[in-house]
Design brief:
This protein is of the alpha+beta class. Helix content is 19%, strand content 41%.
Length: 559
């Protein structure tokens, strides 16, 4: 005991040192263990990183080299499709038939047989020869995708209608002149349904046909058809699923031959029928109830209270005409506004824009007799304009681009024009404006002679011009034609690229059969070899520079 005490006195900190030493050793051991665990965790993280990187590289390698990418169809710049001994109908529809993301062309012609690609005759569908064929042509190379003998004679063709016959793809609706309504599958041309219907004689079909909500509650939207005859408009509702008529036939009394437009006002849908001297307004609910013969409830329909105040519910005349001095109405057109569509009313002397929110006049503009329906385009970026093509003399016309908000004339051009010349077309460009395509024959001021005037009174040459607002003093002459053009349209065949125009040429309906040609032409191909037409010269103008710039012009789709 004494020895222990002595030892403690001689070395008073020994015990503490031993304890500290022991604690330090334990701490070092713990750090070694902890460091070992962190090291192993770090190695696992490194391994996981490199494994993930390796897998990513394998996936990239597989998609880049092993798994082939889907081939994008190469669209030909120009293609033709020819038919002999045929008569074309004035219809052109642009739809993606074979789902290759390139738009295709649908048209109709009357002949005894199909093209050589499809050995089909009228008798195959129980039709007398000749009959009307509907054909779908590939937008990429002009090959015929399908042909179908659809009717004895076509009065109207409308494609891109959803849910016809429960088909997954959109369909085409063919209205025969006498006795049938036929739905075709857009992808195959097969019959979805065919319903005979005798509309009588001496009637006028009001177009386009309208798709309406499901009236018979079979899960498929339905179709409403209007027939004008003898101061009356008859209403037929047909099932989109089977084509059968729903209910009976409704009748609306008008004071002359009518036409119509459909107007969407938020949750309201109105049909505006117009004759030369009157304007009538019917809600979708009123038309369905008149056709079916009982009150129809449409859950999505809410009447517009302001419009209802201006409609005489006994005659359904719109009291708008008491505010304006119209008379002889030639056209009614929808014009986009800030929150809803407005109405453009055109007669033989003026064009008037009506605000559909309060039914007040926005502006009026003096115009002569229109040669084609008003068309929409963009002269300024994202600023909607109206293209009006009016007659100003024998074989003379004036094309005006009018600002939709103010009615101000932004640009105008006078052209020689033959009877039956195609109307204008527009294509949206990437600068949020439009390229305008128009037919006629521009005559430079001061160059007219007596001989030229006499020639103009006979039949001017048809020339296709391109105008873009970036050059207000320039037209590009793309092509000229002496052929009889039955139908013309312009479209983007691929989304935001490949702007083209389509020409259907041949004998007029009612004439004897002859050669028929369908042509698609890429717009840039004509721009590169076009002739520059100066409306007025400006300092620094260079023809090749203008062609090059317009050739590089990009197009875009407006949804």
């Amino acid at each position: 005991m004494d020895n222990k005490d002595s030892e403690a006195e001689i070395h008073p900190l020994k015990t503490e040192d031993v304890k500290a030493q022991e604690n330090h050793e334990h701490f070092v051991e713990r750090r070694i263990v902890k460091s070992s665990g962190l090291s192993r965790l770090s190695r696992w993280r490194t391994a996981a990183f490199f494994i993930s990187l390796f897998l990513c590289l394998i996936i990239v390698f597989a998609f880049s080299f092993i798994i082939p990418c889907p081939e994008r169809p190469v669209s030909e710049r120009t293609w033709f499709q020819y038919y002999n001994n045929a008569v074309p109908y004035p219809f052109l529809a642009i739809e993606d038939v074979n789902e290759d993301r390139v738009q295709d062309v649908l048209f109709a012609f009357k002949s005894s047989n199909s093209s050589s690609s499809f050995n089909i005759s009228c008798l195959d569908q129980g039709l007398l020869s000749p009959c009307a064929f509907i054909a779908a042509v590939s937008g990429t190379n002009g090959s015929v995708l399908w042909e179908s003998p659809a009717a004895q004679d076509v009065q109207w063709l409308q494609c891109g209608i959803q849910q016809l016959g429960m088909a997954a793809a959109p369909g085409c609706l063919v209205m025969e002149k006498s006795l049938s309504l036929t739905a075709l599958d857009l992808q195959t041309g097969d019959f979805l349904w065919r319903q005979p219907h005798d509309f009588g004689a001496n009637y006028t079909l009001l177009t386009p046909l309208s798709v309406i909500p499901d009236v018979d509650e079979d899960g498929v939207q339905d179709l409403i058809i209007f027939i004008a005859k003898g101061g009356q408009v008859k209403i037929f509702i047909h099932s989109g699923k089977t084509g059968q008529q729903i209910g009976s036939t409704g009748t609306l009394s008008m004071d002359g031959n009518a036409r119509y437009i459909r107007l969407h006002l938020r949750s309201s849908s109105y049909f505006l029928f117009y004759t030369e001297n009157s304007l009538y307004a019917y809600s979708l609910k009123d038309l369905c109830s008149a056709a079916v013969g009982m009150e129809i409830k449409l859950s999505d329909f809410q009447p517009d209270s302001h419009w209802e105040k201006h409609i005489d519910h006994a005659t359904h005349r719109l009291e708008l005409l008491s505010l304006l001095r119209f008379g002889d109405i030639h056209y009614l057109a929808k014009v986009p506004g800030h929150s809803r569509d407005n109405i453009l009313v055109v007669n033989s002397e003026m064009a008037t824009l009506i605000n559909t929110k309060d039914l007040h006049t926005v502006w009026t503009l003096n115009v002569s007799r229109l040669l084609s329906e008003p068309l929409l385009g963009y002269y300024k970026p994202d600023d909607s304009g109206i293209i009006l093509e009016s007659e100003i003399g024998p074989n003379r016309k004036k094309i005006m681009i009018v600002e939709s908000e103010s009615g101000a004339v932004q640009w105008e051009l006078k052209l020689n024009s033959r009877a039956g010349s195609p109307g204008p077309a527009t294509l949206s460009t990437a600068d949020h404006r439009s390229a305008f395509l128009m037919w006629g024959d521009y005559e430079e001021p001061g160059n007219e002679t007596v001989g030229d005037a006499a020639e103009r009174h006979r039949a001017p040459l048809q020339k296709l011009y391109l105008f873009h607002p970036s050059y207000t003093n320039v037209l590009l002459e793309l092509r000229n034609s002496t052929d009889q053009i039955i139908a013309f349209t312009a479209a983007l065949f691929e989304r935001s690229r490949h702007a083209c125009y389509v020409l259907l040429r041949g004998p007029q309906p009612g004439e004897g059969p002859g050669p028929v040609s369908l042509m698609k032409r890429k717009l840039k191909e004509d721009v590169s070899v076009s002739r520059v037409v100066w409306l007025r010269h400006m300092a620094g103008d260079d023809e090749q520079h203008i062609r090059d710039r317009l050739y590089r012009m990009r197009f875009q789709s407006r949804d």
